[in-house]
TrEMBL record:
Protein name: Diacylglycerol lipase-beta
EC number: 3.1.1.116
Occurrences of domain Fungal lipase-type (ranges): 370-503
Pfam families: Lipase_3
Subcellular location: Cell membrane
Gene3D superfamilies assigned: alpha/beta hydrolase (3.40.50.1820)
Transmembrane spans: 18-41, 53-77, 98-120, 132-155
Keyword Chaperone: no
GO cellular component: cytoplasm; nucleoplasm; plasma membrane
Catalytic activity: 1,2,3-tri-(5Z,8Z,11Z,14Z-eicosatetraenoyl)-glycerol + H2O = 1,2-di-(5Z,8Z,11Z,14Z-eicosatetraenoyl)-glycerol + (5Z,8Z,11Z,14Z)-eicosatetraenoate + H(+); a 1,2-diacyl-sn-glycerol + H2O = a 2-acylglycerol + a fatty acid + H(+); 1,2,3-(4Z,7Z,10Z,13Z,16Z,19Z-docosahexaenoyl)-glycerol + H2O = 1,2-di-(4Z,7Z,10Z,13Z,16Z,19Z-docosahexaenoyl)-glycerol + (4Z,7Z,10Z,13Z,16Z,19Z)-docosahexaenoate + H(+); a triacylglycerol + H2O = a diacylglycerol + a fatty acid + H(+)
Membrane-protein topology: Multi-pass membrane protein
InterPro entries documented for this protein: AB_hydrolase_fold, DAG_Lipase-Related, Fungal_lipase-type
């Protein structure tokens, strides 16, 4: 529901968010009250010391004050449990209860100050009573401090825009006031988000690229969040409901653009060959992360293997390799790839906004010059990821409307300049002129590798690219089609990054609004069930929503809703894709896509009981919606992807010799 309006401004907390913090405070207050009561009853005979009357009065007043607070918090919890997310009517008394609760902090602070003063003067009474008073004062100030911290957390800098004078009812979609409010809100939100990003990234330099990235990130966040009034718990509840709804759909419809057919011998052989290439080149994509990923994958032995290089001076072997900021990375790269010092042409861990670390090596096994680009590992990389506007990509190809993700395109241009202008590729091919060029990367590095391959296609026609878990919002439609001839992407399970784009995020926001608007259960029950469902599973049959298929005409029913009527997010009754803003047109993943899908332990290869994944070619439209689940993040981790690739390649090799099956279980789409 919309954030509550208190003291004339909107706060980033809803009236149904107080169940769990209220229950926690209630439990603490009741235990505290019982403890003080027992202290008073058991030791009131020992309060005949100097100042004992004052202490006795202090305890009695404290008991009364705690009883009043307990009653008020109980009322807040009960009221917060009423209604649903989008039906705040039964909770209309919440603001008055909160005013009462906040007013009770004044006598509590006064009484805690008096207790602190008496402790400072020294207590001559029984030691147990003194310790009880000290504990009371400490607990009082801890609760007061936690309340102040909570107020700071839920403070919304844009809350002044939701003053009580805001319109309460629905407005026409072409309302001029709505458009002006949306424009003003986005301008203010952009400034607020830019300030937040600058504070978060205060340790990053202030060059031109960084300033541009700050502005791009702030504009992205303001565009996505400024036209809705969802508090964080609403989003959490919506994601929990979407996960259950997604699991409830037993057989999701196939994308309309996908033509399913049985794999022919050529496609099957091509898939096996490309999967083996992915398995091989993933080692280089992982090596580009340097020592952090290596130690993470080898927690017991990794530090011992690479730790020596962090301390010893550079040897002559290191001087054979061009680059900068090698530090502890070189040893981990050697361990991951299995290559020798002389096989590396250049290694750079220079890391700035729009400038990614990369390495260039000679792969004698595949007879290729490998360029591996690192994925996201720093705040600078995150800013590169979040510079999500589209910009034209100036390359020599027959494709029209060549657009790409701005931040990743800038990063690819940086690597291109280093490779070409600094003569790194020329040096590599002067050593091995018969080798072919292969560009690889994971995550952000996969996106940069794909764009770099597009840039290098003209001077190096035989270039190949293997993009592991690339972002979806990368290429225009024409570039996506063009890239299929020389780029292969690999996606694991429900990985969120290959499904992540501004268009898909808008679709996710629309689905969250829709599912919570049709919810017939209070938020605390949704969150409790969602936690249980994520931890222990269960049946999603009793989904607490009433999706009757009707159009949702008023998604948020709260009083001071900031979901501006006339904004793009408001009109979402249709199931068609949202119209993207001009700066964020629909973008697509690179190349042909190999999808590794988890199928459980019951694999179709009977001679390999550990087979848990099917491998198939997938269409990009299968990644046009973000899937919610506990593995949406873990499936993106490079160590998980490497482990799955090891199992899949070994299982498929075992399936070839399986007499019961006589083949593989790959589905071709």
């Amino acid at each position: 529901m919309p954030g509550m309006v208190l003291f004339g401004r909107r706060w980033a907390i809803a009236s149904d968010d107080l169940v769990f913090p209220g229950v926690f405070e209630l439990l603490l207050r009741v235990l505290w009250w019982v403890g003080i009561l027992m202290l008073y009853l058991m030791h009131r005979g020992k309060l005949d010391c100097p100042g004992g009357v004052l202490l006795s009065s202090y305890l009695i007043v404290l008991l009364v004050l705690l009883a009043i607070i307990i009653g008020t918090v109980s009322a807040i919890v009960c009221v917060s449990m009423k209604g649903t997310i989008c039906n705040p009517g039964p909770r209309k008394s919440m603001s008055k209860l909160l005013y009462v609760r906040l007013a009770l902090f004044l006598p509590e602070m006064v009484w805690a100050s008096l207790g602190a003063a008496w402790i400072a003067d020294g207590i001559q009474c029984d030691r147990t009573v003194g310790n009880g008073i000290i504990a009371t004062v400490v607990v009082s100030w801890l609760i007061i401090a936690s309340t102040v911290l909570t107020i700071l957390i839920v403070f919304d800098p844009l809350g002044g825009k939701a003053a009580p004078g805001a319109p309460l009812g629905p407005q026409p979609l072409d309302s001029r006031e709505s458009s002006q409010l949306l424009s003003g809100l986005r301008t203010a939100a952009t400034g607020v988000w830019e300030t937040r990003v600058r504070l978060l990234c205060c340790c990053i330099g202030r060059d031109d690229h960084t300033r541009v990235a700050f502005s791009s990130t702030a504009e992205l966040f303001s565009t996505y969040f400024s036209d809705t009034d969802l508090v964080p718990s609403d989003i959490a509840a919506g994601l929990a409901l979407l996960h259950q709804q997604q699991d409830h759909a037993r057989s999701p419809p196939e994308p309309t653009e996908v033509v399913t057919h049985s794999p022919g011998p050529f496609q099957e052989a091509d898939l096996d060959a490309e999967l083996e290439n992915c398995h091989h080149y993933m080692q280089f994509a992982a090596a580009a992360y340097g020592w952090p990923l290596y130690i993470y994958r080898n927690p017991f032995t990794g530090l011992c293997r690479v730790g020596g290089d962090c301390c010893r001076r550079r040897t002559a072997d290191y001087d054979l390799v061009g680059g900068d900021q090698l530090n502890c990375h070189f040893s981990s790269i050697l361990q991951t790839t299995g290559l020798q010092h002389r096989d590396f042409i250049h290694i750079s861990f220079h890391d700035k906004v729009y400038e990614l670390p990369f390495l260039v090596a000679l792969d004698h096994r595949k007879e290729s010059v490998v360029v591996a680009i690192r994925g996201t590992m720093s705040l600078q990389d995150i800013l590169t990821d979040l510079s999500a506007e589209s910009e034209p990509l100036d390359i020599e190809c027959e494709a029209q409307d060549c657009w790409a993700h701005k931040g990743i395109s800038q990063a690819a241009r940086y690597v291109y300049r280093r490779l070409v202008n600094d003569g790194i590729l020329s040096q590599a091919f002067s050593i091995a002129p018969e080798y072919r060029l292969v560009v690889v990367g994971h995550s952000l590095g996969a996106g940069a590798a794909a764009l770099l391959a597009l840039m290098l296609k003209s001077p190096y026609p035989q270039v190949r690219c293997y993009a592991f878990s690339p972002p979806r919002g990368l290429l225009s439609k024409s570039l996506y089609e063009y890239s299929k001839t020389f780029i292969v992407s690999l996606v694991l399970g429900k990985d969120v990054i290959p499904r992540l784009s501004v268009t898909n995020l808008e679709d996710l926001k629309r689905r969250i609004l829709r599912v919570i608007a049709h919810c017939n259960k209070p938020k605390y029950k949704i969150l409790l069930r969602g936690c249980w469902y994520e931890l222990f599973g269960g049946s999603p049959e009793d989904l607490p929503t009433e999706l009757d298929g009707g159009d949702l005409t008023q998604p948020l029913l709260g009083e001071h809703s900031l979901l501006v009527h006339g904004s793009p997010a408001y009109s979402f009754s249709s199931e068609s894709p949202l119209e993207s803003p001009t700066k964020y047109p629909p973008l697509y993943p690179p190349g042909r896509i190999i999808h590794l899908e988890e199928e459980g332990t019951s694999g179709s290869c009977s001679c390999s009981p550990a087979a848990r994944y099917t491998v198939r070619w997938a269409h990009e439209s299968e990644f046009s919606r973000i899937l919610i689940g506990p593995k949406m993040l873990t499936d993106h981790m490079p160590d998980i992807l490497m482990r799955v690739l090891d199992h899949v390649v070994s299982d498929r090799a075992a399936c070839i010799s399986c007499p019961a099956q006589g083949g593989s279980s790959v589905d071709q789409a």
